[in-house]
Amino acid sequence: MQDDVILRISNLSRSFGPVKALRGIDFELRKGEIHAIAGENGAGKSTLMNVIDGILQPDSGEIVLDGKPVKISSPTMAQKLGIGFVHQEIALCPDVSVAENIFMAKTNVSRSWLMDYKKLEREAVDVFRQLSDIDPSVLVKNLSISNQQLVEIAKALTLDCRILILDEPTAALTETEAQTLFGIMRKLADQGISIIYISHRMVEIFDNCDRVSVFRDGQHIVTNNVADILPSDVVNAMVGRVIDNLYPEKQEAPSDEVTLDVRNLTEATRFRDVNFTLKKGEILGIAGLIGAGRSEIVKGICQLEGDVTGQVWLNGEELKLRNYQDSIAKGMVYLSEDRKGDGVFLDLPIAANVSALKLEQVANGIGLIQSGTEEAQAEALGRKLNLKCGSLNDPVSSLSGGNQQKVALAKMLSVNPRLIFLDEPTRGVDVGAKSEIHRILRELANDGVGIVVISSELPELIGVCDRVLVVREGRISGQVTGDEMTEENIMHLASVMDAQASVA
Amino acid sequence: MDNTVNLAHAGATDGTPFLKRLLRMRETGLIVIILMLFLIMSLASPYFLTWANMRAMSMAFAVDGLLVIGMTILLISGGIDLSVGSVTALAMVIAGWLFLSGIDPWVASAMAIALCTGIGAFMGFFVTKVGLHHFIVSLAIMVIARGACLLFTGGRPLGLYTLPPEFKFIGQGTIGPIPIVIVIFVVFVIAFDFMLRRTTMFRKVFYTGSNEKAAAYSGIRTKKVFFLTTTLCSTLCGIAGIIYMARFGSAQPTFGLGLELTIIAAAVIGGASLNGGSGSILGAILGVILLSLVSSSLALLDVSVYWQDIIRGSILLAAVTIDHYLNKRRG
């Protein structure tokens, strides 16, 4: 490994309104290294990557590429400078072929007037020969999520990039696919390409990366060779305190009282024969790879989507729900994983967001909204959740991610629910708000509210839940509790089928 | 600067002074512009500030005001309706045609309004059940309704000379010095403005337009909302058509050509977003008043008809551009 620095960032800062997302970051990337970036959600990792990719502009600080100071004003410019960014979210055109998706990026940076289809096609085939056996003529929408992810990586590779940023690329991949990806990453690094690898899976970082940088609360904490430190050092640097105190106390003794009982829940294409129970006072986690059917199952239980058969019993009563309105009326609500997409009304006032689930509560007999009642409701719930905001009449878009999530949670609590399904409750939420949300969940559970948490962050599930169900390909593949709750056990249950299939 | 307040230490009362909030409201800006135009015009033309001109002007925007109410609510829910001009004309034509066939004018009017409601429901069906876009569905209905107008009249206006005076009273009568048309308009504006601000029913319109999926995830039947706002808009077209018929004493198959654009422009000037989720009745009405004021001012000043459209279009573009930047700064 050579030691020459290809990218140097010094004293870089960036704020969003009052929130300082990056404060005085220093960061170095060497030629041909795989550099892991670790940090909790909200630590500033993605902000920094967006700055490197030209999506965001820094407020202050310097970026030096190959010894020359640069100003990266747009993603197109980043591409021209040889920086490729594979986002966690897949951004492909579903209705065109794999090859054309790859051409799209290439065409964008090409200086020639005419398309050289032959050359592009040759390159696509070359790239895929390294990656996997995906047929470049297949339409993207017909590929699995993991293969789509590989297409994203291929797209970046065809741009002759010298710096490749991978944002949690393995989140949607099976173990074998991930191993293939690591092999490719090492090969690229050997060719002199520098890779920034974002992950919070310690095993991946320590098995595959050369160095690791840890971020916390918008600051760069430490950079070290992985050979010189232990995973626990990285974790402690990430959370900034001893990990034991991060999560609230667990349930003392399991109750026998059943809050939720789901029997033989089946949906046409998404899941089959789902059976589980939730005991009173217990926090139940649901783990699984993206696309395994976690969200689909709980949305099915609430009648939010899907054509579902099976039985759902809540507090000893069998539910016959026709739609989500019925579910809300029975006190069973769903907190969406996509806060901005379908969790809150960004441009409406905070108070109007909180009241949306059951407007009758803030209206009088003839359906007139009482703004005093509405604000009092938002204020009471806001205080309970320690919501930080200016005025309750401000739009939700004026709040930070953590406070937006508290508004979404306040909306759920406004109906005094008996059971809440929380889908990725702390995604994009800063560390402080995150542990507050965890504490609130435990309090609710102690008060007898049923809590079911879906999360892609295994440490969160292990820290918060009393028991974790694992979903694989639309079925519950197992459950872990107590000391069995480890990342390894959960990942094994979540992906073992694919591993066996590939052995056979 | 950290200007967030911890709720635990602050009351829920809004700290912003009333005057500051008033100044930030879009309606205030529109009123200022309208008053300025008023001032300039009363200096520029001796005919402007006469009772006759005021009355003619308010009559001109009053009925369009009903259309703009329906359009604003539809825009807030996230829809749009291009058919308002021709559906209004169709209400007029159908009611007139039924009347000439010997049906009582009140019954004929009720039937025409019911037909318009039916047209709205028909569009609502295509939007919610079939899943087509509001724009395309209403574009098709715009053409169909116009065609039906021509079909029923043979392309010529229907003279309704025998309309009973008590029917014509709706469009031509006055209570004291105030035309009935204005009274109807004011009642509709106050009623819908109040409902839109206060009722749970119309709050759901805001939720749906602001974020359809989030609304669905809050247990709101968003398709029902679309269906009802689409239908309401057409019903108001029907009512407007009948008032126009009573006022003109005739049914004109070519009435309201291009009216949809004026109505949409007024709603947008008044703060309705084409992306849904925002808008107000008061703002939209001020938008109608502004456009109507500009039209009659240009006519009074003897500006060529050809220039009038160019000026009106430019005003729309300017108003929306200024607003876009103001919103950005506020946001």
Automatic annotation (TrEMBL), chain A:
Membrane topology: Peripheral membrane protein
GO (cellular component) term, any one: plasma membrane
Highest taxon above the source species: Bacteria
GO MF terms held by the record: ATP binding; ATP hydrolysis activity
InterPro entries membership: AAA+_ATPase, ABC_carbohydrate_import_ATPase, ABC_transporter-like_ATP-bd, ABC_transporter-like_CS, P-loop_NTPase
UniProt KW keywords: ATP-binding, Cell membrane, Hydrolase, Membrane, Nucleotide-binding, Repeat, Sugar transport, Translocase, Transport
Coiled coil: none
Hydrolase recorded as keyword: yes
EC assignment: 3.6.3.17
Protein name (database record): Ribose import ATP-binding protein RbsA
Organism, scientific name: Ruegeria denitrificans
Gene that specifies this protein: rbsA_5
TrEMBL record, chain B:
Superkingdom of the source species: Bacteria
Organism: Ruegeria denitrificans
Xref: PANTHER family: ABC TRANSPORTER PERMEASE PROTEIN YPHD-RELATED-RELATED (PTHR32196), RIBOSE IMPORT PERMEASE PROTEIN RBSC (PTHR32196:SF72)
An example molecular function term from Gene Ontology annotations: transmembrane transporter activity
Subcellular location: Cell membrane
UniProt-recorded name of the protein: Ribose transport system permease protein RbsC
Annotated GO CC locations: plasma membrane
Pfam families: BPD_transp_2 (PF02653)
